[in-house]
Amino acid sequence: MKNYRSYMERQEMSAAAHDRLISLDVPSKAVRRPWAKYGALAACAVLIAGIGAWRLAPGSAPGPETDPVADAATSTPVQTEGMAGLQPDEAQPVEPSDGFVVRSWAESDKLTFPMVPAIVYQDVDNIPELAASRAFAPGAFTVELTKEDIQDIFWGPEGKPEAEHPKIEQGDLPWTLFWDGYTVHGIAWYDGQGQFTELSIWGEKDRASFSLELRLGALPFTCLAEPDRGDEISQFNGVEITGWSKVYDRDGDGLTDYICGSEFMMENHIGVRFKNQNSSMEAEYGGGSDMNLGGSCTFNALFVRQALTGGLHLDHLMTAGHIPAWRDVTFDTLEQARLESEFAPYLPVSEPEGYGDYTGNKEFFGRLSYQEGVQNMLFVRWSREYDTVEIDVSFPEGGGVSRETVDINVPESYDTRLYESPWCDSVPAEYQSGFYSVTFRAEDLTLDAVMAREVPHDTGGISFHFNVLHSNGVVVSYSCDGMTAQQVWELVENTLT
Predict the structure, then answer these.
(1) Which helix (H) or strand (E) segment is 241 a member of?
(2) 212 pairs with which residues across the strands?
(3) Which of 19, 86, 99, 341 could serve as 185's disulfide partner, Cβ 3.0–4.6 Å?
(4) How much helix, strand and coil, in percent to the nearest 5, is found in the chain?
(5) CA distance 253 to 250
(6) Of 267, 271, 215, 216, nearest in space to 237 by CA
């Protein structure tokens, strides 16, 4: 799951949505099948195709982006020299514990390079992208995909085709994907009834990476709110395809990244989005002069070809083998919430001072969210005009909440009175992580510690933000507006014992 965390941290979404997503870690299905390991495709070749010249570089190279090109029907397969591969009895790299390295099989010095679809990858460099968050339905969970699961997506119910001729021997996955050497991972999403909804597969190889998202009945969700790009639509095998590209330094490492994406609806009602960053190949895609950009466009278009000729098969993933128990309940009053006996000791016995007797615009909301092995939490919120009081009680099941506490004897690690805004400029680097809402041990919390968390509220008054870790692992998070430190302390004090 660490690779999934790494992958998601590169995506543009809100921190809250990201934290919720990565916390949904459910053990994968226990179906494992024995199978052989093959050598990696290792060579450098120069090929000529209908869309232009390209070469497979031996190391990592930047790549993707696109240009209008001629109809795919004008592309013709050609024989290519130098595609030599390792023999099965040669030394093999060790499989990573999370994911697997794709290895291709190529005994022959010649392979037939496939026709590359002509897709318009329109330049979206100047179109702004706005981050958006996504909420998942109650009971939704993930299952980590096995190597065999991912193979079945591409091979289908009949499995990997038998090949007597080495030119069409496929290896781990169809070699025409050109995923050789990528470390591949995947997860499938299910609803609370165990029915498949969508999946993600992603791969990494040096600076190059890709992500594949599939969804039943519609295009995959996106974490970006994009304006209308005036999409220019391409077609391949009768399917309309939207392509886009972008060239910039995405991760701030000083190196240019070449991002290329495409999305389409397949005839079997599977929505597809495939996006890659950089590539191990270089190409003059559609006559473009940028070989790195062309390489990424070619890599993307090769996936489109495979999906729309070989198909993508999800029948084996339609139903989860195990459905984690879950419960989702909302409350209209504090009294209802306190009927949940395991949570009641951590909730106030009455509404926060100044909120219960408020006669203006006042609201209460409460919710319990439980999922086996993932989370067990109860949230309550009071609102009055622009002020809110929020209390979030999280039991240790499944993690998802930081339990790293501050040292009460080191006020520099939590006392907001010692620093000026913005904190990013005044708080020492070793204390910046989590400084907005630090965690105290229950036995350390005092009125003075609460006073140390006082900050100005953006609409006037003051606010307090902190967490309390109890000895049994329960974490209670407090976010309180429009209250004094003494009032907040009285809200917390009775829960500490």
Answers:
(1) strand 239-248
(2) 201, 274
(3) 99
(4) 20, 30, 50
(5) 8
(6) 267
Tokens representing 119 are 């897709």
DSSP assignment of 72-112 equals GGG---EEEE---B--TTS--PPPPSSSEE------SSEEE
Say if residues 145 and 28 touch (Cβ distance below 8 Å): yes
DSSP-derived 3-state class of residue 296: helix
Measuring CA to CA, which residue among 127, 115, 121 is closest to residue 68?
A: 121
The amino acid at residue 99 is G
Cα–Cα distance, 362 to 140 (Å, whole number) = 32
Q: How far apart are CA 459 and CA 13, in angstroms?
A: 26
Beta bridge partners of 215: 198, 271
* Site of tokens 């989860």: 320
Amino acid at 274: F
What does the pLDDT profile of the chain (497 residues) look like in tens digits? 444 444 343 344 334 433 433 344 333 333 322 222 222 222 222 232 333 334 444 333 333 333 322 333 333 222 222 222 223 233 333 444 578 999 876 554 555 677 899 999 988 877 766 666 777 888 999 999 999 999 999 998 887 776 655 445 567 898 889 998 999 999 999 999 999 999 999 999 999 999 999 999 999 988 766 555 566 889 999 999 999 999 988 888 889 999 999 999 999 899 999 999 999 888 888 767 789 999 999 999 999 999 999 999 999 999 999 999 999 999 999 999 999 999 999 999 998 887 866 666 778 999 999 999 888 999 999 998 889 999 999 999 866 667 899 999 999 999 999 999 888 899 999 999 889 999 999 999 999 999 999 999 888 889 999 999 999 999 999 999 989 999 999 999 989 97
